[in-house]
Amino acid sequence: MSVSAATAVSARRVGLPSQRWLGLAPGWWFVLPALAVIGVFFLLPAVATLALSVTDFDIYALADLRNMRFVGFDNFRRILAGEQADLFWQALANTCYFVLIGGPLSVAVSLGFALLLESKLTRMKGLLRVIFFAPVVTTLVAVSITWRYLYDRDNGLINNALETLGLTRIDWLGDPRWAMPSIILLAVWKNFGYNMVIFLAGLQSIPGELYEAAALDGASPWRRFWHVTLPALGPTFLFVGVTTMIGYFQLFAEPYVMTRGGPENSTYSLVLLMYEEGFRWWRLGAASAVAVVLFVITLAAAMAQIAVQRRAAA
Amino acid sequence: MNRTAKVWLHNALLALLALVVLAPLLWTALASLLPPGAAMSVRAAPQDQPDAASFTLNNYRQLFSRLSLGRYFLNSVIVATAITVISLGLNSLAGYAFAKLRFRGRDTVFKVLLAALVVPVQAAMLPLFLQLKQLGVINSYWGVIIPSMATIYGIFLVRQYALSIPDSLLDAARVDGAGEWRIYRSVVLPLLTPVLAALGVFTFLTAWNDFMWPLVVLTGNDSYTLPVALAILSGEHVQDVELMMAGSVVTILPVLLLFAVLQRQLIGGIMMGSVKG
């Protein structure tokens, strides 16, 4: 018996992964169920959104598919320059406001809390970590309702506290200038614990010798933070930055529950627009165009951020 | 400033921050126990605090008797449990195979999955709705469960962890004549327990708290999950602050309790997913 034949026999006997069933390696059978779910119920519909965005799929097509027609880029024209343009550009501007102000603010707050917690002076670190993480596990809809009352102009807890401090009341959710900042504040409170934990993991992976060396050189705490901590957190920043941004582009539940996009559409977001177009008015073609725009913008922003941080690291 | 003073100052600041972070949750719990109309008169000043004697469970009683919150609670439990159990099974199978089994196309498929992480779920929602309508599962538990039966993040997390399983252990089992399925069940699954615990809590929390997709797919009153029911009720009962806060407590408390018990696993899992990411 040749050597290769002997190996083949022993491989069969001990059941190495080369053993096939219906012509597929065992590995394939292991991944197939999950791949089928993700492929059929996520990737396929995601691609189908592109197809749907060039049709006039509406409530009539929902009843009978023969009522659907190919309309080219009409949906995009309608939202970018047609009768829906005002609302679309407002929603885009609001979403960008939320992403560009809320995102970095949330990351900064997360880093601040992580640094405070990681300090050698901190007592009861474990308990504090749980407390700061608690808002993350709460239900967004439920806490949005709570915050709607906290923000109440006449009787809300926040305005009562402001008044006690001698400040004037603010019409948080009723004033178009304050509504989006109010939602950002809620989002930061709700989310910061998540990135805080990731920053904690990043901080704990920085070798202690780096700090000792910096301390020997007589570097001040501020310089140690600037020259040791921040550069060492580079990969964490990239991860946190990209995931936070993608998440913030999906703003939906807060305006849906708290403001319905108002006042004066000042909190109307892209996903809210997509939802109302698609599932309230059943214009799925037009809503798909919004979804495509959302995806393109998210992707472009993620790639831009990766490029910027690569350059900063180089 | 000496060290003791520094420690005091530092921890006083942290305690204050902890209080601020917890304040909205504490207020929710407090308001849920007050009689109608009392919550919005809670002031920051101590003399305006409500009298403990006025605490009542009436709001909770109303929720379950008049607003059938028990039904929504049950819906949430069923949907979140089913998603957790099914997706743990599928994600662990796939994550283990991507880490430890060799098959043609493995690395390419995995790269495609990772790239797909940047696609927002909303981008798939509209055709997904039509798809599930064809399957006849709109307004049913399955309509919520099916799209969450496997997740890229879950596969990724299990794979990261499974990479540390020594090949020699698996080969030894193979030499003993165990098939791949047997090895997965008796050797791999026990080793994956820590990551599956973390992923399990994470999945349950995500499913319990999920709002947009259940809002889309659950079209009838009887099938609502808690967040959907709460969002709709809160539109009809804007003035019933205390009632709505009781509803919030019923929605949030289960996940907070789960988190309190399994916080180490959950936070450890999130840290694990980020470090090698």
Can you put this structure into words, describing what you see?
The complex is a heterodimer of chains A (314) and B (277). Chain A is mostly helical and 314 residues long. Chain A has one domain (76-313): MetI-like fold (Orthogonal Bundle), CATH 1.10.3720. Chain A has helices at 3-14, 26-52, 59-63, 74-80, 85-118, 125-137, 140-150, 157-164, 176-204, 208-216, 221-232, 234-248, 253-258, 270-280, 284-313. Residues 1-17 of chain A have low confidence and may be disordered. Helices cover 73% and strands 0% of the residues of chain B. In chain B, helix 3 (69-100) runs antiparallel to helix 9. Chain B is mainly α. Chain B has one domain: MetI-like (MetI-like fold). Chains A and B meet through helix 2, helix 5, helix 6, helix 7 and helix 8 of A and helix 1, helix 3, helix 4, helix 5 and helix 9 of B.
Structural class of chain B: mainly alpha
Reported CATH architecture of chain B: Orthogonal Bundle
Q: Give a short account of the largest sheet of chain B.
A: none
The CATH class of chain A is identified as Mainly Alpha
Regions with little confidence, pLDDT below 50 for 5+ residues of chain B: none
What is the percentage of strand-forming residues of chain A?
Answer: under 5%
- Please state the average pLDDT score of chain A: 89
End-to-end CA span of chain B: 41 Å
What is the fourth-level CATH superfamily of chain A?
A: MetI-like
User: What is the CA-atom radius of gyration of chain A, in angstroms?
Assistant: 26 Å
